[in-house]
Amino acid sequence: MSSLHNKKAAYHTLGCKLNFAETSSLRDQLEREGVQTIQKGEHADICIVNTCSVTDVADHKCRQAIHRFTREHPGAFVVVMGCYAQLKADEIATFDGVDLVLGMEQKGDVLRYIEERMAQKEALNGGDACHEAISVPTKDIRTFVPSCSRGDRTRYFLKVQDGCNYYCTYCTIPIARGRSRNGSIASLVKQAEQVAAEGGKEIVLTGVNTGDFGRSTGETFLQLIKALDQVEGIERYRISSIEPNLLTDEIIEFCAQSRAFMPHFHIPLQCGSDTVLKLMHRHYDTALFAQKIARIKHIMPDAFIGVDVIVGMRGETDECFEESYNFIKSLNISQLHVFSYSERPGTKALEIPYVVPAQTKHERSQRLLALSEEKRRAHYAQFIGTTRPVLWEHARDNEPMQGFTDNYIRVKQAAGDHAKDNHVTLAKLGDFTADGECLNEVLDQTTSAHD
């Protein structure tokens, strides 16, 4: 029997879907060793914080989460992992109550490290924190750690790729995650088959630079999605994010005619000004981006297209922002994910002379968020009164069942309907709900589900 049997664990994850997938997989591993996830009000024996470092706000939230865990669970074995842990391992290890900080190369061995170090702590120091940091330099990060899990969700998240070779001037992720690497198609198909065996219906493909799949194995992302499309039992796939220069026409065309890939794309633009894109060292220009959007909409008119945008990058003058805003407004897209530029130590962006004031960043963000809501509602409005398949997801706190259509419209089950979790049924989309306007993506339209 594992030394961890009957221990209780608490988890906190910050950042991207990839982090959530990795935490969920780790939780599955620990549960197989007999570790129980704490219920509200319980004291944890193990606390795991999976961190993000995409902005200085993310760093601050990570520190808050670590301090909250050490305060709420005194004496617990506290483990910190993730991007912030890779970048600031030695610093984090000095925090009160922190036992172990693990870098990216150690992610696959978290369970072993916890078992070994917990035993040492209990035997040697009577409960004092260990304050140990274990990591390697970014150049030595080589391992691809598989991850496929759903946690407490209905959809599964399958990690297909990790790391990034792009070194955009504003970004620390390549420093934190290491070089681009991936699992093999055969191994990923096997994980998808396991999801199907467990009854899973939908898989979201995740990665740091998902479309760069194949660096480790000499395969391609197109070959991967063709292979996954053949897995019996999986009814839906979504691609969490893909760079526009890696979203080939062949990928778009395959998704349009595939059995299970949904009409849904998430494509980072970051800025609609070619001047700023060059400062960012992005791998495309606005002409290529517009071409990709037009191609998707030409062959998949119903497709949902989400777009990432960064505002306030160094060098983004008023003229550049207006150019960006007008370009984004011209695109036939469905929603924006808006981020304010954050100064990150060690990035090339710090060499760019023009700094955007904080208030200006805020004003620009508000304009883009308003534009996003306008586009989201316009996308949804096209489908009011139509019937589309919805994968229903378990409700929380006695709320009505909710789910997503194939083209990523968030719907709420109408009163009196009784759809089941993890079942796909046809639903007739009703009008916007009043609370949907307040909660944005959460409760946007009512549906009547029927077979």
How does this structure look, described?
The protein is of the alpha/beta class and 451 residues long. The protein is 35% helix and 22% strand. It has helices at residues 17-32, 56-72, 83-87, 89-93, 110-124, 173-177, 185-197, 221-228, 249-257, 274-280, 286-299, 318-330, 358-381, 434-439; strands spanning 8-13, 36-37, 46-51, 77-82, 98-102, 132-134, 148-149, 156-159, 161-162, 181-182, 202-206, 236-239, 264-270, 304-311, 335-340, 387-393, 402-405, 410-413, 424-432, 445-450. Strand 1 (8-13), helix 1 and strand 2 (36-37) form a beta-alpha-beta unit. 46% of the residues are buried.
Biggest sheet: strand arrangement: 2-1-3-4-5-6
Indicate the proportion of strand residues: 15-25%
> Could you give the distance between the termini?
47 Å
Number of strands: 20
Overall pLDDT, averaged?
91
Overall helicity: 25-40%
Class by alpha and beta content = alpha/beta
Radius of gyration: 22 Å
Individual helix count: 14
Largest sheet: 6 strands, parallel
Q: Uncertain runs with pLDDT below 50, 5 residues or more?
A: 434-451
Categorize the overall geometry: globular
How would you briefly describe this protein structure?
The protein has 14 helices and 20 strands. It is an alpha/beta fold and 451 residues long.
Keywords summarizing the entry:
14 helices; alpha/beta; globular; 6-stranded parallel β-sheet; 5-stranded mixed β-barrel; 35% helix
